[in-house]
Structures are given as C-alpha cells and as structure tokens.
Amino acid sequence: MGWVDFLIIGIVVVSAVVSLFRGFVKEAISLATWVIAFWISLSYASALAEVLPAGISDATVRIGIAFAGLFIVTLVLGGVINVLAGQLVKRTGLSGTDRGLGVVFGLVRGVLVVAVLVLLGALTVMPQEAWWGESLLMPHFERLAIWLRDFLPEDLAAHFEFGP
To answer: What pLDDT was estimated at residue 145?
Structure first.
C-alpha cells in the first residue's frame, strides 16, 4: 500500500468518525443533499450556462461554473435544513442507534468524496503518475469515478481521462 491508499483510508475513516458524532438523521439529510445537489447540477448546468455572461466564451468553462454554482447553492440550502433537523433530533433525544447508523452514512460519504476526487484527478496528468498506478485502492475508486462520469453531459465527460 502506498501513501495514496493511506490517504484514501484516512478520508473514509475521518468521514465515518465525524458521522459517529453527527448521527443518522443529520447524515441522511447530508447524503440526500449531496445527491440532490449532484442531480440538480447535472440537470440544469447546461441551461444555466446559456444565461451566464458572454464574457465567459469557453463552453466547457461556462458549464463548469454553472455546475459548481448550482452544486454549492443546493448544498447551502441543504445545510440550513440539516441545522433545523439537528435541533429537532436534540429535542427528541434519539439513542446511540442514531449515531451507529450515522457511521454507515459516513462511510458512504467518504467513499463518494474519494470517488469525486479521483474523478477530478482525471482532469490532470495524475492518472499517469506511478503512485496512481501502484495504488491498491485506486482501481476500485476509478471504476466508481467512471460510473459517476457517465452521468455527466457528454461535452463535460469527454475531459475526464483515466489513461489507456
């Protein structure tokens, strides 16, 4: 195992530990928010890109900005809902089961975060680096990243290359 494998494990473990303290309800809302943000961004990035200022002439940059903007706005709105739900959970006094189930959500979130980072890495020369190829975990996350890439618009997905 190389350093990148330990980094991947670290990201997933930190996500699980954070979820242990946050609990199931907050993590469920958090995960739903991320999925909804991704879906909204995929569904409406092209339409929003068309109404962006004409000063941004590159179509790929326009779609990237629109995607990121929609994603961030959706995450902020989901965060507000999450704070309100967290206050409700505190008042009801949910048990340790809430926290235990939260760990599962944290693991899922950690895996998704790594997959998105791997997907973004495909925009660079990193997939051709020796450490990338020597990683034990990277092939698994590449498969997940390629699966995520398939949901992107074709003109955007074409820029994500994982090598030969």
So the answer is: 93
Q: What residue numbers bound the domain in which 139 lies?
A: 3-158
User: pTM for this structure?
Assistant: 0.66
Q: How many domains does the chain have?
A: 1
Token digits of residue 1: 């195992």
Residue with tokens 């004409």: 54
Q: Is the pLDDT at 162 greater than 80, yes or no?
A: no
The residue among 63, 61, 59 whose CA lies nearest residue 44 is: 63
CA distance 56 to 79: 30
Asked if the structure places residue 164 within a domain, the reply is no
Within-domain flag for 163: no
Per-residue pLDDT for 54 more than 90? no
How far apart, in whole angstroms, are the C-alpha atoms of residue 3 and residue 108? 22
Is 148 a domain residue? Answer: yes
103, 107, 113, 114: CA torsion to nearest 10: 150
Domain membership of residue 117 (yes or no) is yes
Instruction: State mean pLDDT over 113-118.
Output: 95
Q: What angle do CA 16, 138, 100 make, to 5 degrees?
A: 15
